[in-house]
Amino acid sequence: MINQTAIATLVQTATLLCSEVGRVSGPVCREEYRLADGRILELTWDRSAGTSDFGWPAITEYKISARRAKTWRVSR
């Protein structure tokens, strides 16, 4: 299970690099952030999957990597 609070805390102090909305299995949004330490956080959230304790849409996937992907888009 994804720790929604930990991910939300990272997002609050990160810089948004990319936000892309598409329809995968409901209203899904993928976002990419640069964290304070320079790593990249990619996450997917879905309004239809409920909400977190912060009132945000539920985060359904995430990945933290050392560098930004060359290509990044919502898969259909």
Structural class comes to: mainly beta
Helical element count? 1
Show unreliable segments: none
Strand order of the largest sheet: 1-2-3-4
* Largest beta-sheet details: 4 strands, antiparallel
Shape: globular
The percent range for strand residues is over 45%
Domains counted in the coordinates: how many?
1
Short description:
By secondary structure, the protein is mainly beta. The protein is built from one helix and four strands.
Describe this structure in words.
The chain is built from one helix and four strands, in the order H-E-E-E-E. Helix content is 12%, strand content 50%. The protein is globular and about 30 Å long. Strands 1-2-3-4 form a four-stranded antiparallel beta sheet, covered by helices on one side. It has one domain. The protein has 76 residues and is mostly beta strands. Strand 1 and strand 2 form a beta hairpin.
